[in-house]
Amino acid sequence: MLARLITGLITTLWFYFVLILYYIILKTISIFYYIYIKIKAITSKPGLIPLIFPFLAKNKWVERAKIIPDDRRIGNYVAISENTAVILVPREIVPQSPLPQSAVRIYIRKNNNWKLQTKLFVPETQFVAVDDDIILAANRSLVNKDEQNVPIYIFTRSNDTWSLPTQLILPQPSEINFNVATVALKADTAIFSVPRKVYVFRRQPDTNNWFYETELEKNGRTIAIDGNTIIVGQSKSAYVFVRDLATGNWSQQAELSPVADDEKSPTNVDICGNTAVVGRPGIQSRRGAVDVYERNPDTGDWSQRNRFFPSDVPWKVAYGFGGSVAINNNTIVVGASRKDIHDSMPMQLVKEKTAAYVIERNSQTGKWSQPIKLLPKDYKQVARGYAREVRIAGNKIIVTAPAWNSNFATDNVYIFERIDS
Known about the structure:
By secondary structure, the protein is mainly beta. The protein is built from 4 helices and 29 strands.
């Protein structure tokens, strides 16, 4: 009996010893690999130097604002359009109301400072988008079949005053129950996805009324629009749809699949002109990658031109690079987040401190730079959770930093501005 007890104890201790040793070996390898890639960057790949020394980058990004919404939790959505930033606060205290409501906080830029302009209260808002003087706010409220009203509201600004919202209405009652999954807005076109469909609405310029245009038969977990092109992200591929200017009809133009035989991963998408960016945070054992595709304007053909990895993160270390992506002209911004990756791998190393990255294209050569980190002044305090969501408009970037532990910290939002050197 005693011998069995001793044997069991020794077996248990040996198991934990091997487990700890395995962890130490993996940790040591990751540290040496981290040192190796930095030395390699300096000695053989000068293009990676700005990643390690951001102050050597050609264009400088300056932190213009840090917004803390009165110790309130922010939602997963922020948006920015030139001199207007929008932040969703799910539980805002409403004057003369017993219960908090969702609030869309609008900040405007004046003299390099960002100030709160007003708040728009929309029940249970979970998504926001902004483009110039238009804001779209939506919630996940269940739309029952046989209903036409969709819980999506559009506000319009005139002389710094926001109008009463316009609600989007389907042309005929829905045949199934559904929830809104995500939204996007650009100029006179608003889109939103529901299970198995993406609805497209368009504004009539002379009346400012919004009308149903079409629906795309795709299940979009992320969507984006620019001009007459829509991109829909799914579990592995992204799909591009274009509008025929003569007929107004939409049709699928391309499927953007990765060249490599990647494992299945959520895709996050954005588009600007003839360039599409697809974040794949789940590939390479959740290290993540970002693919850049370009369209030939003459033929309409798309091809993958670049794939970017977080060069400061060792291979097979979970990081979620590409958890959020955005593009404007020649600038891509990437956030690292594991928010959409729910599977787990035993004994996998995880890099907890995340970052935002900027990738810029040379307008003369068309070549893209290596990713350069975009960090706030107080990065050490917000590193865990930083860059969960990123957006870009012109020369401004907005980045969220949800608190890792809501009991001891608050959510933050940062706005950066590019200063050409």
